[in-house]
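cache lookup: miss for this entity combination. No prior model stored, computing from scratch. Input as submitted by user K.M.:
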Amino acid sequence: MKTAPQAIVVRTAGTNCDRETCIALERAGAKPELLHLRKLIAEPARLESASIVVFPGGFSYGDDVAAGRIQGFEVRQHLAGHLGEFVASGGFVLGVCNGFQVLVDTGLLENLPSAAGRGMALAPNVSGHFECRWVHLKNEDSRCTWLPAGRVWPAPIAHGEGRLALRDGAMLEQLASERRIVLRYVKPDGSRSDDLETCPNGSQDQIAGVCDMTGRVLGLMPHPERNVTPWHHPQWTRLTGMRSEGEGLDFYRRMVVAASQSAATRSARVPTIS
Amino acid sequence: MPNSQTTSLPVSPVRTPSVNAWRIEVFQKTGRDDPEGTRALHALRELGIVARNSNARVRVGKGFLLSPELNQAQVERIARELLVDPVLESPRMLAPRATSSFAVEGVHRVSVMRRPGVMDPTAMTIERTLARADFARLQGSERVRALTFTVYELEGELSHEQLLRAGRELFANEVIEELFVDREDLHFELPHASSERSDGTLALMRADDAELTRLSKVGGLSLSLEEMRAIAAHYRGLRREPSVCELETLAQTWSEHCKHKTFTGSIEFTSPAGTERIDNLLKQTIKAATVELAKPWCVSVFGDNAGIVEFGEGFDVCVKVETHNHPSAIDPYGGAGTGIGGVIRDILGVGLGARPIANTDAFFVGPLDLPDSKLPKGCMHPRRILRGVVSGVRDYGNRMGIPTVNGGVWVHPDYVGNPLVFAGTIGLIPHSMAFKQVEPGDRIVVLGGRTGRDGIHGATFSSIELHDESSVVSSAAVQIGDPITEKRVQDALLRARDEGLYRSVTDCGAGGLSSAVGEMGADCGAHVHLDRVPLKYPGLTPAEVWISEAQERMVLAVASEHVARVLELCAAEDVDATVIGEFTATKKLVLEHRGARVCELDMEFLHEGTPRPLRKAVFQPTALPDPGCPACADHTRMVLELLASPNIASKQWIVRQYDHEVQGRSVLKAMVGVRDDGPGDAAVLQPLETSRRGLAIGCGANPDQGVLDPWAMASASIDEALRNVVAVGGDPERTAILDNFSWGNCQRPENLGALVEASRACYVTAKAFGTPFISGKDSLNNEYRVGDETIVIPPTLFVSAVAIVPDVSRAVSMDFKEAGNALYLIGMTHAELGGSHYLMKCALRGGRVPRPDLALAPRRLAALHSALRQGLARACHDLSEGGLAVALAEMAFAGGLGATVDLARVITAELPPGSDPTATRLYSESCTRFLVEVRPENTAAFEKLLADHDCARIGTISEQLRLAVRESAHSLVIDVDLESLRRAHQGSFQG
């Protein structure tokens, strides 16, 4: 099994992180294919040959009405069932930034068939405007077991609506007890703080990324694909020693490995199904 | 199961008549944060509209109007699935013509909605989305219509006057938006369509001078008498009268904006050296430098929508910088947004279309701390302007997915009525696609946004109808950008390019279709059916369609066999594309509207018939006495004050609102250092994933110097832009520059005289440095009249520089890196404080403006570059605003490391009497100087390379968190901790 797993990168009007996402996936060992949402809706069978579906960052439909809302609506209308089957059969779905907003809106992270009943949302940053800056992330002990728990690494954020808001306290407890909190904004030493330097959007419990019950659907606000080369880091001119790549590449590499293993199990099952 | 939660929305009972549409308002649920409301309240307090200690509350809601033909179930479903977040928000709605309202006792409601005909991109998105949703169908083929608005609900003791002020100064821009203070009668009509009009002809053949002048004025043509005479003579030769369409086309094509008549005309120039005739200023200065330098890596300069230079690895780089001043003064948010949108289209329309990879922006505004009482009548406060233009660039650039990587903010009192906005875009294009050629028979395809009355200044020839349409007309002065339409256009265009589907492309900018089609067909001819152009709403005259400056449109020349594929590809990307005519071999521009020929113009007359004006220019050097360089009693305090002055203070609040990382090409960002708070000299990008070759992007401008000495200002601004790109690792041998002039009215000889001086400096300086101009733009009427007084902006030359960085892994940032390293100052310090920030702080004017030493400076840049290229520098920073003192302070707090510096080691020219040596060394803004940090093991090699370039080791980086500057072994003139420096830099206006 040495063929690169296929990753569908879904684009639509306003998607704009497709370049760095495809580059990161490719460097991480996947075979990315950029596909228009309309095309995927017309040909959902394309999901069958893919191991990963990525909803990349951007301003789908201009963030009109709310960030991710229109694309979430279109996915819910036309693709929700297919994506559900894709995940159930072992596929990975990643939503980054605007893609996370889309995933939240679709209900896929909560395994919901419609918008109603949703327990989480991504609200406007506390600053009230777009923020682009670098943060530190910590991998939590979560259902995304392919991420080494406890590791702290840098990545940039770039969003106006990234403050995770939950329906109520019970929802937070549920996310924690179900090990669905995947990433948190932390200080460089890994400790927690709710100050805005550490968690610039004011997210509840400094949560930066969450997954679904399978651990195969993951959404996060920061952009690991923008920390892939040795020169992406804002302080690379100060960092000494051997640093041959950005820390975000490891995130993608591990996901691609996990997805291809999952896909291997999946394709092993296929003959019995057909 | 979750569907069980969907309950009917509360529908208010009926009382008084209101708008004939479904009305939905969405607010944050009680208990949820409302950052927008909090910000609005904060701003109301800052403006003094509500008292700081008042207990007022503000909530901000999103409002939507939907077609009255929808039934309640449909509207509820639209609200639930599309308009409301179930976790955060709760909606409420009113039925069409409901007689009740949402008004409650004790709560004031201020609604803001766009005027009819003004673009509402969110509404367009909702309409497009609903058109694809089964459940939102209307009977027949009608599409659901939508409009949006914003509601501010204010609690507290507030008078109607206070609410009106809040609306006018904070919530709405009444040029484009309508304000409803405690009023609920929003509108839902389509813009008023005038009766079908034809434009007709105008009687020019026998008109006398007075009549010609009148016709130009009434028509808003901005044609001079001489030009009107040339046109009348041309039509006398044709024995017919011109149509309105023809005149409009001529007016657009011959406009200053498109033709640069001042820059290319004849000038009689009088200076102390005598009087001389300049035949074509642009050709003799800016372009002459490029022509004479004849760099083989210049691919296409001054001929296309942007300059193109070779990058390497099979690609070229395209650069364009535009000014968008007047629209930004009227509507800062929309003006800056459409400014950036327009320059992005220049890049999409250069060669066969380039991919935008970076944006730049620069703003020149009035004092941010100006007391309201000093604000001239009719002006917006500079703070509001700056916030507005920053938000405009942010929302357009971020949505386009183009990182904004470099720029600046300059403050001067004379920008108060006429702020300047410069927006630039850098593109990447395969080398083989740098040129284009229209062939007769190619179809003319317009794609992107629909055409409305946007940007038609004045009401052309229908002054009688002006009153009826005044709301449409006034809103038409401002164009509203829709970045997502432009992003779709980009996606479609670049895919069509890669499939080789068209032969030529250009953007619709100033002059709209008239300029775009007129330019593309200049060498062959074009035939256009104006009735085929897709419109936003009916009722436009043919001339209006032709010259509308509606945004987000591009024009392609498509061979007939590729038309079907182009239309198919555009449809897949959700882009409107329409064949509106074809290019011909007739050398004529022919326009038809519903079978009637409304224009038939000779291409030659259109493009070559402009009479060249003769203008007078006078230059007289300033008579201000030289104030010298006074001593300063407390240099520590002075450094802190300089760091907080608006031109120098941190722009982090701006930078962080721009997505400067998108596309993943970033190598050096605008802010650098251990806490990302050091002001970097230039951005560095890695354009291609597969190559370490990089691109540095920097800029320079010095308006305060321009007032004193336009020659020196221009030369120093070029020097500054070059310093910035070289400091980060750019190769001065592979640097191209761009000129953007913003000047006062050049009909005035003294303004034109300053322009001549500055242009000549550009020639001499570019030649000396070997850096060709590859593109430029001028805006020559920047003044503000209030009563009898005219405020003229300072002569402003904004220079951009783009340089190749041979290896991005050798790029250098400005923050101190390691204690113990040596600190060098490169370059000679002169008593050059004219226009300096130090003299400003001393409230003194006059003095010698810095000029680069053009014999030494180019070699100094080359020597420094080779040192950087060899990896000998750990940090490098140029000396500019605030001189040595500010550069040292910035490097120190950015690196989180101190330094000890000995001023006695600074290489200083002989100082004239009246120049305090300490203050001169600390604050002179002499050109071509750098601070460089070098590791001990590299000092010998570094000193050897820079031996002939006034290189002096002036200090050492230290672990102590202090900047300590000594005059000699004993006296400490500056002694300050890094935290104080950082706080001063961050302490002034931060948005």
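stored under new cache key. The longest strand of chain B covers residues 355-365.
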